[in-house]
Amino acid sequence: MAPTPDHRPQRGLLPWLTVLLCALMLPALAMGRTDDPWAPFDMPWFDRVSVSDGLPHSITTALEQDKRGLIWIGTLSGLVRYDGYRMQVFTGNSGRKTDVPDAYIRCLLTLPDGSLLVGTNAGGLSRFNPLDNTFHNYPVGDGGTSDRKIYAMSMDGTRGVWIASEHGLGYLDLRSNIIRAVPLGAGMSPRSFGILQDREGNVWVGNSNGLFVRHAGKTAFKRPEHTPENSNVEDVLNDGIWALLEDHAGRLWVGSTQSGAAYRDESGHWHGVTGFSGRKQDHSRRATVRAFSDMAGDTVWMATDGDGVLTYDTATSSLSAIAHDTGMPSSLPGDSVRDLLRDSAGNVWVATDLGVARYNPGARKAFALRPSSNDGRSLANTNVRGIFVDHRQRIWLGMSAGRVDMIDLSAGAIRHLELGGSQTRRDVQAFAETPDGTIWVGTQGVAKVDPETLAIHDSAIPELDDKPVLHLLADSGYLLIATYDGVYRYDTRTHALSHFNHDAGDQSSLPSDNVRRIARVGDDLWYVTGLGIGIATSPTQNKGFVNLSNRPGDNTSLPNNLASSIAMDPQGNLLVGTYGGLAILQPHSKGEPYRFTTIGIANGLPSENINAVQPDDMSNPWVSLPNGLSMIDANTHVAHNLGVRDGLRISSYIYAAAARAPGGELLFGGLGGLTVVRPSWQPPHEPDTPLAITYAALNGTPLAYGKLPRAGESLKISARNRNLRVDFALLDYEAPAETSYSYRLEGLDEEWIDIPRGGMPTAIYTNLPHGDYKLRLRAQTRGMQPRVIESTVDVSAAPRWYETIQALIAAGMLALVAIVGVIQLRTLYLRRQARQLQQQIDVRTRDLLVANRRLDELANTDALTGACNRRRVLELAEEVRARSADGQACIALLDLDRFKRINDNYGHLAGDAVIRHACRIMQEQSRDDDATGRYGGEELLTCLPDSTLEQGMAAAERIRQALEAQPLSYDGHTIPVTVSIGVAAYRAGETLSQWLTRADGALYEAKHGGRNRSVAAH
């Protein structure tokens, strides 16, 4: 089937047809990339700022960047200050000093002191003062401008500003802030659209009657010298001149009302712009050139009123056009362009009648090829499902809806093919090339394309017309066809078709019928399926596969059974994309197990669902993911993720579509089109753009823009409410959705506070405690070269009057005086009360002394015997122990013999009498210093200070003998009383308990030795 002809209506006629057809050559010309085969397809991607973002009018007229890096946008309905997130609009409707004198802004100019000159359509010239956010309006007439319509302004070094208006020229002296009229030259009209002072001091004026110049040191304007026979240049220089620019090479560019543009080189010779100088052959007017922008290399951009942006490369004399593309939302918003600006971060801003567009020429690591109205250099649709590069270096793209795109880089064009028959509107996912050059196409069945004529033969294998084909591989005279129903083998010589698939009863068959890829790996064929990988040694093999799958618990096995893609890097490493990460085959010898190293989220990948893998020339694997593209460092296995700052514009990939282009570029198919990656391209090193405070309010009162603190400066908050709001932004204006922000007020916040994704970077604090803080701001960018940019501002919150040191000292002194007074009054009162109480206390003290003595006696006396009780006698014994030397004190522990028999025979009262009798005799036989008392029950204890063991035994014997000699007479009965005594001498270092234990042991010996005896402890 022949390529489908283009039946869409054509735009433009005659010479402009050529310009429009080469529009997409722009990027190469703009950046000096004429040797880039992808240049015809690498279209500028414009991000738009429109009314929906806050612009007061869709028609934008002027662009300027101030000293702090913010963008000012002039519109038909006011002036806008823009930080990439927020817009401050000055409408011109209030009549106050804080608003522009006229809403229609024509031109803008930043002055060395940071102020901004604003030229309006009917309000004259105004100067914005950032120190108080007010506009100073210059008069019209004496000391002011010659008219209220200001067309253009140009700096005179740092001393003054040239002004072009409707009725004359003016010069603003920045030292006196006075405007004086500048005399016109012969042949000049009062109306001038453009003005420029070049680096040599010459003043160039774009007048409605042509171009005029006043050379340095001269006082009169005249027409510039040029070659008379160059009619094209003559037409330009004699036409109304709107735009003037001196580029980095010293060339002077001149844009006219209807005759195109011309330039004067550094040697003074004039040149026409090929294809855009002089009158058209049909005498129709050309689009007015409104502005120029100096690009890299030898390229200049020209803003036109109706034809978009034209680019011209002086080195190649090549003219290209950037125009609005109705089929591509990322194109220029509109073709009527009023101004151009290249900001400090390298972005190019374009003011159009449909808002502002911004393009980053430095985002060149990747670009997207998408559908557009330019059928010869765009895709047929957005779904790129398969990619293949044939031996002629042509790139084949399988698209949805039965479309096949063939990219011929040598011709800088795309051919669109369309399948027919039973394969009409069927998705195309696979390609293969047989040795005769035939291109086989896998879709619903198989088609083939003649490599010379590109004629399509539908239903090339009729038996497969109902089979969705997932992949094709031409190998050894066979065409291997991967489907959802296993693999079909087609013999391209005999046209025989065979089939093999998974056999549930044979573990050596294909792992699954869902065969996604087939690859030749050395001498083997690898079949990548949805349930693992099957390895065969021959294309004719139907079973006996070596099958690889995930083994739970084995991190060297295939990370996931659902495999998607397979590739080999230049060093021979095998890469397998799975839905569990990227698997890299470890060095393998025949007969050994297959082991893999897995790269996943832990290595920095944003997802482990690998759709396609493709290595670059340095063996770094690149993978497409559901949420982007990533490069994995071959040495460190660290993943680096592409972002918008690298040029990535297609964010989602679900197809295993990837290939290496002839020049080493990597191609990935996605849901939004084709992504082309230049792995070796590195951006030039540029300093970080500032992370700036773009708005601040203290206690609800906004700060003037000129008083916003820069990094290292400070903010002082008064004591009223101590509320702070700070808006901040990274002023590279790139990828706001991929820039994350956080902030922290040191001295108050323990951790960084993250701005939610999609939220405005703003820090708000209310009711701050007084003190000194550091407000730290942070921006983190994504991409291949992520950056962390921080900025710090000192914050001082003033104390309220009652929080000052003086107030605290005064309050302390008053409190001290009050306390002293209260103490004195309290003292007098207490003294009187004390006297009254003292009398009562004296009386009660006497009673208490008597009672205490009685309590002491009761607390220390045994109620039965009147001797010391156990607690008291042990206290006394401890005192003796504490002051005695080794062997110089004794304890005698006494126990009444057969006391139970006395209780049983005579009664318990008799028993009590016996205990009292024994205690009395013991006290009689003891010295005054001896401590005697009832130890418990029928046991008595005496502690003998200053007594050796012999002396202690003697004292014990006296007590025993006295008791034996004095039986108790009780209730008419004579009760004999005897005791057994254990005596222990104190040993230095032992405790009272140990001492008593030894005495108790001796007492035990006395009991068992026949009673009524004294035994010394050992």
Question: Can you give a write-up of this model?
Answer:
Helix content is 15%, strand content 37%. It has nine helices and 71 strands. The protein has a five-stranded mixed sheet, with no helix packed on it. The longest helix is centred in the last third of the chain and has 56 residues, at 805-860. The chain is elongated, with a radius of gyration of 52 Å. The N and C termini lie far apart (126 Å).
**Mean pLDDT value:** 91
Strand content: 35-45%
Major sheet: arrangement of strands = 58-64-63-60-61
Spans of at least 5 consecutive residues whose pLDDT stays below 50 are 1-33
Rg of Cα set: 52 Å
- The shape, in one word, is elongated
Short summary of the structure?
By secondary structure, the protein is an alpha+beta fold. The chain is 15% helix and 37% strand.
Task: Produce the secondary structure layout.
Layout: H1 14-21, H2 26-30, E1 47-49, E2 60-65, E3 71-75, E4 78-82, E5 87-90, E6 105-110, E7 116-120, E8 125-129, E9 134-137, E10 150-156, E11 160-165, E12 168-173, E13 178-182, E14 192-197, E15 203-207, E16 210-214, H3 231-238, E17 241-246, E18 252-256, E19 260-264, E20 270-277, E21 289-294, E22 299-304, E23 309-313, E24 318-322, E25 337-342, E26 348-352, E27 355-359, E28 366-369, E29 384-389, E30 395-399, E31 403-408, E32 413-418, E33 430-433, E34 439-443, E35 445-449, E36 456-457, E37 469-475, E38 478-483, E39 486-491, E40 497-500, E41 515-521, E42 524-529, E43 532-536, E44 546-548, E45 563-568, E46 574-578, E47 581-585, E48 596-599, E49 612-615, E50 621-625, E51 628-632, E52 639-641, E53 658-660, E54 666-670, E55 673-677, E56 691-698, E57 701-702, E58 714-717, E59 724-730, E60 740-746, E61 753-754, E62 762-765, E63 771-780, E64 788-797, H4 805-860, H5 870-883, E65 889-896, H6 899-906, H7 908-924, E66 931-936, E67 939-945, H8 949-965, E68 968-970, E69 973-975, E70 979-985, H9 992-1008, E71 1014-1016
Parallel strand pairs: 58-64, 70-71
Antiparallel strand pairs: 1-27, 2-3, 3-4, 4-5, 6-7, 7-8, 8-9, 10-11, 11-12, 12-13, 14-15, 15-16, 17-18, 18-19, 19-20, 21-22, 22-23, 23-24, 25-26, 26-27, 28-55, 29-30, 30-31, 31-32, 33-34, 34-35, 35-36, 37-38, 38-39, 39-40, 41-42, 42-43, 43-44, 45-46, 46-47, 47-48, 49-50, 50-51, 51-52, 53-54, ...
Helix pairs in contact: 6-7
